[in-house]
Amino acid sequence: MFTDERSKQIVLVSHCILNQNSISDGTADYPAAINEIVELLLKSNIGVIQMPCPELLCIGLDRGNIHGCEEPVVVENTRIRSSLNSPSSTQTIKTLVKQLVYQIEEYSQNGFTVLGLIGINRSPSCGVNTTSMNNREVDGEGVFIKALREELEKKDVHIKMVGIKASEMEKALVSIKKLVDNSPQK
Ligand code: SF4
């Protein structure tokens, strides 16, 4: 089964890696996609799952504050984080996580390799190594990544997660190359 041309290699990426239009006001570093990352993944024949943008789906494109971009990023991120902990956001995140876990399990059970996930550090939602809390960037995970990791762990599924920043592209590409180099096809 699935012995056609597909690579059977999958990576999950935060939504804004492919679509910077989703990001909170004032924080986009690219006009559309983060080209260097997309080029690296495409060149490596890795299928890309674009994860949903939890902030857009929970609290909207303006994140519920049209003046958000006037605040320092970590201050606005801290406000966003508390909005993501509301009952309705928690429910939405739960649904999004469930759909992703289903996809990861389907690929794994059918012999595909899920190489890992690429998240966005400092994000209150998608941070992997750092997030925003108490008006600071701190070590830790964003709300969405934490919920996803915990749900995967319940099912004894463990995938590599790397966090990047679009403003630190050299460092980001080194981390992503490590994921890509784990491909069994290498
Ligand atoms: S980091 Fe996550 S929440 Fe923020 S724009 Fe990207 S996908 Fe959306």
Using only CA atoms, what is the Rg?
A: 16 Å
Shape: globular
Overall average residue pLDDT: 96
Distance between the termini: 22 Å
How many separate structural domains? 1
Q: Helix proportion of residues, in percent?
A: 40-55%
Task: Tell me what you see in this structure.
The mean pLDDT is 96. The chain has 186 residues and is an alpha/beta fold. It has seven helices and six strands. Helix 5 (87-109) packs across helix 6. The strands form two sheets. Strands 2-1-3-6 form a four-stranded parallel sheet. A two-stranded antiparallel ribbon has the order 4-5. The chain has one domain (9-180). It is globular, with a radius of gyration of 16 Å. The chain binds iron/sulfur cluster. The site of iron/sulfur cluster has 13 residues, from helix 1 and helix 3.
Describe the structure concisely for a colleague:
With 186 residues, the protein is an alpha/beta fold. The protein contains seven helices and six strands; from the N terminus they run E-H-H-E-H-H-H-E-E-E-H-E-H. The protein has one domain.
Looking at this protein, list some descriptive labels:
6 strands; 7 helices; two-stranded antiparallel ribbon; four-stranded parallel beta sheet; single chain; alpha/beta; 186 residues; binds iron/sulfur cluster; 42% helix
